[in-house]
Fold each of these.
Amino acid sequence: MSVDSPPRSSVPLILESLPTPELPSQECPRRARTQIDLLLLAIEALDLGGSEAMLGVAQELGLDPVVKGRVNLWLLRSTNPMRRYSQRRPMTLEEAKAMVAIIGNLARRLTVLMRQLLTGYQQLRERGLSLDHHLRLADYLQRFRTHFRSRMNPRRAGVIAYSSDERLDELAMQLLEQLLLCSGILGTQRLWSSLFDGEVV
């Protein structure tokens, strides 16, 4: 006697571990969309193959039904209103969950490097030395500044606030700290919850 297997859920299991917040709509809020894209920007600055890694992780985690290839990934990231070519299309909460799952997975892979950079940053600050004294850290910051300036709209108020190298370096280090926090156990869940601080009804 054969036993029918239960129907496969259309929602990837990893997304079910992220609770759906009680929001006025099922669209991802503006601040959350911005933060997701900036964290992915920091990952690209850390890893030269970051863009390809994002697509690879989407496949590994079974998220390709949600993140449907390179163009779709670009469209999702372009829902960040700070972008030069910002898309007016909304990002759904399911799409946001997929992006956060990708961030958490990549952050775990980059944990050792992020710890090294943050430790180096702290040591340079304590000694009063410029960040150029740590080549790997300087390389990360340079790439982050380049990515940010090439992809963000310089006329947006949120972008104007980061017009100097110093402000962009501060942002890059803040994102690095956030990525490290979400690399640990339940880090993806913590990142997901933090995106909606002040948004939940």
Amino acid sequence: MTMDYEDLDRRARDILRGNDRGGYTLPTDGLYPYQWNWDSAFAAWGFAEFDLPRAWTELETLFSGQWPNGMVPHILFHRPNAGYFPGPDVWGAEGMGPILSSGISQPPVAATFLRAIFEKDRTLGEPHARALFPKLLAWHRWFRDWRTEAGAVVVTHPWEAGRDNAPDWDGAMAAIDPVGVGEYRRRDTSHVDPAMRPTKYDYDRYIWLVQLGRRLHWDEAAMRAENPFRVADPAMTFILMRANRDLAALGRALGEDVGEIETWIGELEAGAAELWNEEIGAYDSFDTRALKFSGCVTCASFLSWYGGLDDERMLSQIERVWSAKRYAVPSLDPAHPQFNSKRYWRGPVWAVLNTLIGLGLESCGRADHAARLRETTRALIGEHGFAEYFDPIDGSPAGGGTFTWTAAVWLAWASPSAGGE
């Protein structure tokens, strides 16, 4: 099949422009009507391929919602949208930050993409980078203070991980009795086939955790003491590790003191080592309440290279998982009993995770593996469009369509016109 890469580039730019709401970008129109944290950082990276000022605006709008404690929320509710659930009235975080928002964060990819955007044009980028550097530093310090257990990064809600229904959370979710959640009407299943989304069982527990945070007034110390969901996540650990490396590099370029950041990197490396599950031979999530591993090889396991750990032991794992289905990298090991090729983070391929894994492989000198993953992702998007995620068996699109971050990673990484080729 011959692909028209110039047309794909144009379509990707059109998706970013079409989802632009003037300073921030929706993940996709209809399904997600607000600004989502890590989606927005990917959007900035994509915009930088054709509109650098707009890329900087995206990041600045994201950080305009930062809380005084340093946390950058996972959703910023810039405009009312009565049809979305759970909205700001459910989160109950009014007054916690300058913009109505959720009460949790998301994977901190922003520093990595900010550095990449800065490298494109240091002259234009320097004042933006200088203004954003202390905000990034405060956010990363918040992770260090409130989201670490023995050096590994924990998540306090599946939505904070960005991998909502990953099997990593099954044990911690089973320990929650969602009593008192009440009736609610989801928006996502009216836009997307429910078979592709988290189940009601999952959603009841998601809402129970939101209600817990609201009851505790989003007080971090109180939530650390009371929240039964506190799972050390390899994805968050490796993403923050990479983000700290990039924030340190940015700081050095700006003449900032980066000693604190370098200390964090060492702590995270030690924490990541504790997430090695010898039983499955991979990095794995660890429930810090129940004190046990999830026992799953997921796409998160393969972010070790992204974090800067060139672990030979993971090569055989990625080769095994890669060869199990036509399209890589499935979000869950196809050999796992919970594998589902269409249900969100229980099997589908996500172009954004492929991108992070590929960037990690490349930075660790695994050029052949990185090129192979880029080519696979290019074929997937080229043949099946800019979907939220894809079936690893036949590549069929799933979830939302005309998705911002899929378009962004096409422009910045997967397309032949992107940097690196």
Amino acid sequence: MHPFEYVRPSAADEAVATVSRDRHASYLAGGTTQLDLMKDGVLRPERLVDITRLPLRGIMHTTTSVHVGALTTMEELAADPVLAERLPFVREALLLGASPQLRNMATIGGNLLQRARCRYFRDPAVAACNKRTPGSGCAAFTGTQRMHAILGTSPHCVALHASDVAVPLVALDAVVRARGEDGPRAVPLTRFYLPPGTTPDVENMLRHGELITEVEIPLLPEGTRSHYLKVRDRVSYEFALVSAGVAVRLDGDMITEARVALGGVGTIPWRAWGAESVLRGCRVDGENFRAAAEAALEGAVPLPGTAFKVELAKRTLVRALETVTGGRP
């Protein structure tokens, strides 16, 4: 591992100042992804700023939202009774997102910032990776492609966003609150992540040194049903081939409100706006669900190795809708 300096600040402002003024510094929280990347030589920070003892941990409830400190662990949030009652698909995504050992270490802020699971990004022996070395090319276009994206891709990168919990949080219009040297700001999660475009190395809207302090999760109205369905190669801890997070309100057999997001298919957690538009005001019906799935995957650009994901994602979304509504095709 590359040598680095270890720093433990006593306050958030001190942490922000330390990282903001050093281009080679980065934050350390749970470390469940960062330390792996450092061991592999992908990340080489010269200074690690340990924020684990800062007062950024805990869960607070209001009548309309859940406020989650960035250092709250996945397991702590999954155990929250309000989350279980009002936002079950967030809890399901947390529990399906990692093993118990990892959930007890991984933080919510860190999970939202986890780096791509692209095998080429994580292997420094592969020279062509625009995300790791801008301008070097993308090895995925000629290599193994099964775990790559089909939505939000560009000719420069097809790396997949790996977070499970980000999927329902995007569907909920959750808000990320961050603090930098210019002060605090709030960014909706639907705008927080950036598709690769021509700059795959820039993954989100955080400026260097900005520190996520809190995630605000809106509560669904009473009576709203939600479900997170994850399809993967094995039942034990594994990343999604495809996943769907759905929330619907019903009036009899009519869908009055719908929120839909997909995982395992996008370079960012993918909000399926088209599917939501199809579902609102329609009956609980298999044909309507399929129409929503078609809308959700509109614009997909698969590679030969990811072509199977188009139909798999459609079927996953239909099944999630059937489960949450009790409907049948």
Amino acid sequence: MARTESNMLALGTQAPEFRLPDTVSGTTMHLSEMVGKNGTVILFICNHCPFVIHVNPEISKMAKEYQSKGIQFIGISSNDVVNYPQDRPELMRVKAIEAGYTFPYLYDETQEVAKAYDAACTPDFYLFDKNLKLVYRGQLDDSRPGNGKELTGKDLRQAMDALLQNKPISPDQKPSIGCNIKWINS
């Protein structure tokens, strides 16, 4: 299990617009059409990464809780499906249903969106305010597969709670750690 850290995109960055197919609904979705009233979490995930599999229960729980508070979640998989066929779009749909995702799970076939967000690993989390300015990027919490730490979503939850309460979000943020994005031709 290779351990890759987030690149930590600069806070204040405007979320790059994108248009990607949703593997669950079968429709093409634009970021501008999915923005949450109070914020938007964009998470780069995939089907097979043990780090993502480890955090899936908390991601699903958190999405249900915070979507009702006006924070939209958007999952994106950018992995090379030729060399990693378990991440194919039809299997993404199956994974989304199995994991209980209540949010779109988009397929970034060209990997242009992952590059625009400077995404490096799965999972990689980005929280944008209602104007799509980056206010948090980094880890869900300190839990990793096999490290014995409880899965709570503490870091991302604190950032979302601060955003909802119009309180400052600490710029001292820890990078996420996971499998590297499986880049095409690399």
